[in-house]
C-alpha cells in the first residue's frame, strides 16, 4: 500500500473519534434524560457524531493493521494489538446509545422517555461499553510502551501515544472537558500516523533475496 495512504488510514480513525468527542452534545450530561435533552437541542451535532462514528468504525481496525509490521513481533506486540483491536471492534456497540438518542429525537419522544430507553438497553450494551474503554485504553498504553522500547518513534511522540488514552479516560470520567478529549485522541491520531510512516522493520532481515545470479564459473583456457 502507498505510504501516504497508509499514514492517512492510520490517523483517520482516531482523528474522527477526536472530532466526535468534541461534538458530543451531552458530554457533561449527568444522566441519560439530560443527554436526551442535549441531543434534542443539537440534533445536527449528534448526526455528525454518528457519521464520524461510522468512518471511525471502518478505519480504526485497518489503520491498526497498517502499523503492525513497523514493530517487532513478540508478546508485548501481541497484547497491545490484541487489546486495541478488541476495543476498536466494540465501537459499534458504543454507538448504539447515540443512535437511540438521535432516532428518539427525530421521532419526537420526550427526553424522559428517551432516557428511559437508554436506561433499559440490554446488558450487552454496558458490557460492550466497558470492553471498549478498558481494552483500547490499556492496549494503547502497551502500544506506546512498545514504541518507546523499540525507539520506532521519537521519544516525545512515543510518550504522546502512551498517555493519550489515559488522558481521554481521565477527562471523560473526572474533568468533563471536551477540548482535552480532542487533544487526547488527536495525540493518538498523530502518533498512529507517524508510526505508519516509519520504515517496516519486521522480516526485513529474513526476506529472501530474489534475482541474485549464481557465481560465475571460470572458463577453461
Report on the structure:
The protein has helices at residues 3-23, 32-41, 43-66, 75-89, 91-106, 111-119, 123-150, 155-175, 178-196. With 221 residues, it is mainly α. α3 runs antiparallel to α5 and α5 runs antiparallel to α6 (111-119). It is elongated. Mean pLDDT is 90; it is low at 204-215.
Summarize this structure as a short list of keywords or feature phrases.
mainly alpha
Total helical segments: 9
Q: What form results from the Cα inertia axes?
A: elongated
Q: What is the average per-residue confidence, as pLDDT, rounded to a whole number?
A: 90
Q: In terms of structural class, how would the helical and strand content be classed?
A: mainly alpha
Percent in helix? over 70%
What kind of sheet is the major sheet?
Answer: none
Task: Tell me the fraction of residues in β-strands, as a range.
Answer: under 5%
Got a strand count?
Answer: 0
Low-confidence stretches: 204-215
User: Any idea what the radius of gyration is?
Assistant: 22 Å
- Secondary-structure element string: HHHHHHHHH
What gap, in angstroms, lies between the N and C termini? 52 Å
What's the topology here?
Blueprint: H1 3-23, H2 32-41, H3 43-66, H4 75-89, H5 91-106, H6 111-119, H7 123-150, H8 155-175, H9 178-196
Amino acid at each position: 500500500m502507498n505510504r501516504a495512504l497508509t499514514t492517512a488510514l492510520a490517523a483517520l480513525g482516531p482523528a474522527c473519534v477526536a472530532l466526535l468527542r468534541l461534538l458530543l452534545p451531552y458530554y457533561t450530561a449527568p444522566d441519560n434524560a439530560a443527554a436526551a435533552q442535549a441531543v434534542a437541542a443539537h440534533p445536527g451535532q449528534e448526526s455528525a457524531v454518528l457519521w464520524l462514528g461510522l468512518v471511525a468504525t471502518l478505519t480504526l481496525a485497518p489503520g491498526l493493521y497498517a502499523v503492525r509490521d513497523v514493530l517487532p513481533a513478540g508478546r508485548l506486540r501481541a497484547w497491545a494489538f490484541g487489546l486495541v483491536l478488541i476495543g476498536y471492534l466494540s465501537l459499534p456497540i458504543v454507538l448504539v446509545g447515540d443512535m437511540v438518542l438521535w432516532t428518539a429525537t427525530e421521532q419526537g419522544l420526550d427526553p424522559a422517555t428517551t432516557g428511559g430507553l437508554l436506561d433499559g438497553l440490554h446488558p450487552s450494551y454496558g458490557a460492550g461499553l466497558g470492553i471498549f474503554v478498558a481494552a483500547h485504553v490499556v492496549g494503547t498504553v502497551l502500544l506506546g510502551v512498545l514504541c518507546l522500547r523499540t525507539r520506532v518513534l521519537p521519544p516525545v511522540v512515543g510518550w504522546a501515544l502512551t498517555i493519550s488514552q489515559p488522558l481521554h479516560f481521565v477527562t471523560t470520567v473526572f474533568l468533563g472537558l471536551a477540548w482535552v478529549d480532542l487533544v487526547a485522541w488527536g495525540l493518538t491520531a498523530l502518533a498512529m500516523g507517524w508510526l505508519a510512516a516509519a520504515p517496516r522493520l519486521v522480516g526485513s532481515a529474513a526476506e529472501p533475496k530474489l534475482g541474485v545470479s549464481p557465481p560465475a564459473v571460470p572458463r577453461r583456457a
